[in-house]
Amino acid sequence: MSDTPKFEVIDRRRMKKEEEQEPASSSQPAASPPAPTPEPEQKATGPRLVEPEAAKPPRSEAPSEVSEDDLAGEMPPLPSVEEMREQESAYEASAQRVEDLLRAQNPTMGAQPPIKFEHLVQQLYLSALMQMGAATPEGQRPRVDIIGARQSIDLLGVLEEKTKGNLSDNEARMLETVLFELRMTFLELSKMISLQGVQAPPPKPEKH
Predict the structure, then answer these.
(1) Are strands 48-49 and 143-144 parallel, antiparallel or unpaired?
(2) 15-27 per-position pLDDT tens digit
(3) Of 103, 121, 202, 204, which is least packed with CB atoms within 10 Å of its CB?
């Protein structure tokens, strides 16, 4: 039984008027989180799988899978061209104000470069590497989120499939190279985990 959550898209246009009328609430300082308890030293040097967080009980009304037709049926009405143009302009102005505030506090900071396709690929690439233990400090046992790594790699696979024919030669080559490298690293890591006898927690039995 899949735990895929049911998507719910909220039409922000309906809430705009109420949000503008709400008074600005005073922000309360967040309590500092408790200091993490240091983990006991482990003699083993191999990767240690990170157990996934306890999954929330599935909702009775949530389907096992969300199809594109079901998701499209729950989407709010498509905004008009004028609404999209106004929102884009407001977004750009808001982002520029935030950047101006940051640069006022740090005059040495230069202008932020525009976000491009390679930034998206790099973000998923780095996430997958970290989930496979690449950012582990020297001398510590790597903590591997093998499920999270697979999801990040599969997201790059979806990106490759959906953008096929729409990328430049350099973008396509970069995406193919990143996918090949990550999949090879995943294969080597999974083989290492199998040889060391490290197993993921057993799946929970399905309720009938």
Answers:
(1) parallel
(2) 665 665 555 554 5
(3) 202
pLDDT at 2 (0 to 100): 45
Give the dihedral sign, CA 37/42/46/51: negative
Quote the DSSP letter at residue 182.
H
- Domain locations along the chain: 79-112, 114-198
pTM confidence score: 0.59
Name the H helices within 113-168. Answer: 117-131, 146-162
Nearest CA among 54, 56, 76, 49 for reference residue 4: 56
Beta strands in the chain (DSSP E): 48-49, 143-144
Other beta carbons less than 10 A from residue 172's beta carbon: 15
d(CA 40, CA 197): 21
Cα–Cα dist 46/107, whole Å: 45
Is residue 109 within 8 Å of 103, Cβ to Cβ? yes
Query: Directed axis angle between helix 146-162 and helix 169-195, to 10°?
Result: 160
The predicted model gives 36-64 an average pLDDT of: 54
167 CB-near residues (< 8 Å, 6+ apart): 117, 175
